[in-house]
C-alpha cells in the first residue's frame, strides 16, 4: 500500500495559486492518485483524481510526473473558503483495498 | 459523482448505552465500505473494512465486540458503538467504494457523525 507524504501545513494569501505536493514513492502500477478536501466536522470531499500526466476540472489541476512518484494539487486563486485540510490518497480503486490517510496538509488562506 | 449518506450527523448518548450509525450508498452498490474515526486535529484512522454478506475486518487495536459492523445489503452498512464511554466520543466517517463510472472512482465519503458520550 503506497504511503504518502505531504507538508503538514501551508499558508497562502487570497487570490494566489497554491500548489500542494504529495510524495508516493512506492505507488503501484494500478494505483490512482486522489485528492480530498476536508472542512472541520465534515467528511472528506473529492477534489480531483488522476493516473498520469495532467488532469484539470473546474476547481483544481493535478500534475503527475512520468514516474508517478509524486503529484501536485494546484488550486488557482484561492479564497478564504479554501481553508481546509487536503489529503492525497493513493490506491487501486477496483479492489477492496483500504485507503489509509496520511497527515494531510492544513491550508490556511490569509486575507 | 457517487453519493454516500451518513446518519445521524450528530448524536449524544449516555455512557453505557449503544449507538448505531448508518452509511448508505445512494446511487451505486457498494460491496465494500470502510469506517474511520477522527479525533480533533488528527487525520482519519481506519477502523474496519465492511464487506457485504461477510464479517468485517478490523484494524489492529480496534475492538470488534465494541464496534459492531453489519453490511447486510449492497447499499447499507451500520456501525454500532456498544456500551459507549466518553473516550469513544469522536467523529466517525464511512466510505464506500464507487465504480469507474463516477468521477470519484474509488472511494466516496459520508458527511460524518459526531458522537458525544456523556
In summary, what is this structure?
The complex is a heterodimer of chains A (111) and B (118). With 111 residues, chain A is mostly beta strands. Chain A is built from no helices and nine strands.
What does this structure look like?
The complex is a heterodimer of chains A (111) and B (118). Chain A has a 5-stranded mixed sheet with strand order 1-9-8-3-4, with no helix packed on it. The mean pLDDT of chain A is 92. Chain A has strands at residues 9-13, 18-23, 32-38, 45-50, 53-56, 61-64, 70-75, 84-91, 105-110. Chain A has no helices and 9 strands. In chain A, strand 5 and strand 6 form a beta hairpin. By secondary structure, chain A is mostly beta strands. Chain B has 118 residues and is an all-beta fold. Helices cover 0% and strands 53% of the residues of chain B. Chain B contains no helices and 11 strands. In chain B, the strands form 2 sheets. In chain B, strands 2, 4, 5, 6, 9, 10 and 11 form a 7-stranded mixed sheet that branches. In chain B, strands 1-3-8-7 form a 4-stranded antiparallel sheet, with no helix packed on it. In chain B, a hairpin with a 6-residue loop joins strand 4 and strand 5. Chain B is globular and about 45 Å long. The model of chain B has no long low-confidence stretch (mean pLDDT 92). The chains are: A mainly beta (111), B mainly beta (118). Chains A and B meet through strand 3, strand 4 and strand 8 of A and strand 4, strand 5, strand 9 and strand 10 of B.
Amino acid at each position: 500500500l503506497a504511503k504518502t507524504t505531504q507538508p503538514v501545513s501551508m499558508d497562502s494569501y487570497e487570490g494566489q495559486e497554491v500548489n500542494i505536493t504529495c510524495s508516493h514513492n512506492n505507488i503501484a502500477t494500478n494505483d490512482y492518485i486522489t485528492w480530498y478536501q476536508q472542512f472541520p466536522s465534515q467528511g472528506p470531499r473529492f477534489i480531483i483524481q488522476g493516473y498520469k500526466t495532467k488532469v484539470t476540472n473546474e476547481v483544481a489541476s493535478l500534475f503527475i510526473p512520468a514516474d508517478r512518484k509524486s503529484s501536485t494539487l494546484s488550486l488557482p486563486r484561492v479564497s478564504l473558503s479554501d481553508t481546509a485540510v487536503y489529503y492525497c490518497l493513493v490506491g487501486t480503486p477496483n479492489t477492496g483495498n483500504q485507503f489509509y490517510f496520511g497527515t494531510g496538509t492544513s491550508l490556511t488562506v490569509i486575507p | 459523482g457517487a453519493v454516500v449518506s451518513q446518519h445521524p450527523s450528530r448524536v449524544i448518548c449516555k455512557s453505557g448505552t449503544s449507538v448505531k450509525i448508518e452509511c448508505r450508498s445512494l446511487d451505486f452498490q457498494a460491496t465494500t465500505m470502510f469506517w474511520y474515526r477522527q479525533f480533533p486535529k488528527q487525520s482519519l484512522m481506519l477502523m474496519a473494512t465492511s464487506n457485504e454478506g461477510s464479517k468485517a475486518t478490523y484494524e489492529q487495536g480496534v475492538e470488534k465486540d465494541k464496534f459492531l459492523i453489519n453490511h447486510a445489503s449492497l447499499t447499507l452498512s451500520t456501525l454500532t458503538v456498544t456500551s459507549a464511554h466518553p473516550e469513544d466520543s469522536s467523529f466517525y466517517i464511512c466510505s464506500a467504494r464507487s465504480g469507474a463510472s463516477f468521477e470519484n472512482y474509488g472511494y466516496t465519503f459520508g458527511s460524518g457523525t459526531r458522537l458525544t458520550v456523556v
